[in-house]
Write a structure and sequence with these properties.
- The chain has 659 residues and is an alpha/beta fold.
- The chain folds into 3 domains: 2-168, Rossmann fold (3-Layer(aba) Sandwich); 178-252, Helix Hairpins (Orthogonal Bundle); 277-472 and 488-658, no CATH class.
- It is 61% helix and 7% strand.
- It contains 30 helices and 10 strands.
- It has helices at 16-24, 68-80, 94-107, 118-123, 130-137, 152-164, 178-190, 193-198, 201-209, 213-219, 233-249, 259-268, 274-291, 293-319, 323-341, 344-360, 362-376, 384-389, 394-399, 407-416, 426-436, 441-465, 487-521, 534-542, 554-562, 569-577, 589-594, 599-611, 616-626, 629-658; strands spanning 2-10, 41-47, 50-56, 84-90, 111-116, 126-128, 141-143, 250-252, 522-523, 526-527.
- β4, α3 (94-107) and β5 (111-116) form a beta-alpha-beta unit.
- The termini are far apart.
- GTP 2 binds at residues 35-39.
Amino acid sequence: MDIFKIALAGNPNSGKTTLFNALTGSNHYVGNWAGVTVEKREGRMQHAEHIMDIVDLPGIYSLSPYTLEEKISRDYIQNERPDVVLNIIDATALERNLYLTLQLIELGRPVVVALNMMDEAEKKNIQLDLEGLSAALGVPVVPIVALRKRGLSELLETVVNTHHAKETYKPRRFNYGEEVEAFVREVELKLPKALKAQHDPRWIGLKLYEHDIEVQKLVAPLKFDSGHDSPDLMADLRYKVIGGIIGGTSSVHDIAFDPLTDRIDRVLLNPWLGLPIFAFIMWLMFYLTFNIGGVFADMIDVFFSVYLTSWVTAGFEFLQVAPWLVSMVVDGVIGGVGGVLTFVPNIAIVFVMISLLEDTGYMARAAYLMDHWMTKVGLNGKTFIPMVLGFGCNVPAIMGTRTIENENDRLIAILINPFMSCGARFPVYVLFASVFFPGNETAVTFSLYILGILMAMAFAMIFRKTLFKGEQSPFIMELPPYRFPKPSDLGIHVWEKVRGYLIKAGTVIFGASVILWFVLNFNFSGQVPITESFGASVGHFIAPFFGPLGFGTWQNALSLVSGIIAKEIVVANTAILYGLSDTAGLTEFGPVLSQAFTQVSAYAFMVFVLLYTPCVGVIGVIKRETNSWKWTGFSVLYQLVVAWVMAFIVYQVGMLIFG
């Protein structure tokens, strides 16, 4: 059995992940915007007598390591040396896509070009000479439609043939002019044999000509004078070659203009209408979450708090199970995990709405709309995409900052992202808004999301003027075409998000609920009343810290501290700490919580949950993405301080106004 490795490389939004899913049977998310894939994914498939290990690399525009995902892709191809590089090209944007193709060919690995979205090219009356394009590039070119799995058999056969013929594989050497070629020949002559054995010498020469810092380090202490000081000169020369290739192999007849897209963009991108429309869409998301999700949430709540609790209690009584075990399961597990699972419908609707915004192409337009405002705080619209992704989960959102070229901009984006209210905080808002602001849940929750955005932008401005001074990078982003979301893709994306929420409920929150039950029922003397437990002692010690914020009870203090593990635990622990697991469910939260909160302190509590130290998963990804304990520790501490100050202001000012 023949086993070999294939690397999928292509521009963002070229259909690369769609092809990966089609080949491997995977269900990775496919979005209609740039930057969906920010780390490599791996899968395996069998074709005839061949086993192919396929690696889906991050979407990139070039192999110049300006962004982290470009570095990941280039390092993989250069160091892991896949047997074949499968370059996915958007047939409707040939000029932009071929820039990466030329660089992949220059790198020296066997390349096969998959010309994707041929159906859309036909709709736009784009005619391509595939044989001519293959001859011009010197590599095989195969037309496909990855979304409909058209042309995949021919593509796989071509990949296999290229792999078997790699000893005789000879791509075209593009002529970039005598000055460049003379420089490359000089480099090839002076490179040591060991370096030539590891890397294509022509590729090294071309990268040195464009002042590639990584390659300059690679050849040190050797130095070469390219005779120019513009790193963009090589890009201009490549585009001249690309222009010649396109001129001889493609043509467009009677350009198909899409008036609908233009009319929609005139409204959605209007400087006066665009932002109000975006705000209305966000408000609608929360409205649907409470008014539709709430119905199903009530059903789940009744199941856990009435039926499951009574069934388990009756079963344990019949089996004569020890009272402490009954209490642990009913009060700890069902009370904690059930309290979190109650909000699955609300979470699912949030994920559906966010996925719709991404898949239709609106998300990229939201970034364009926000560029004007982001520029005022020292960033650009590209930073807004990871911010919006944070509404789902801050972990992939922070990883999404890899698409930001400027390192200072990226660090700012990482540090402000946890202010974006993730789905894990949402159950807290649902609970407290339903109890203390009935009829106004949508407005209250909407205000918290807006506050998170404003805080993120405010601290972006502060960081730009203090910690990360320097020029901001320009905003360049391709607006994807509007597309109707494919129901299966939408379902897969939402299910993966909800599945992650359920897994967390069954693992992290389950474990935390059991631990909390022990902490609340024992001390050094054994099992004791909750007021004498370890948890009560810890809570009483911490509670004064929250006193000026209006929620200085030991139960609230302990709940917030445990929320650093996972924000959903705040709801789970609130149920356990106030002994609500064996009551009639959420209907009993009101009377109990009203004894510990007022409307003002409840809103201050939600503000604190919005802004305080992120969960351990986010802390871990901040450490990984910054590679710095300094910035990780700074993120943890400054958010805690900001949360305390803002909750203090909300509570104290609120008490002055409302009493």
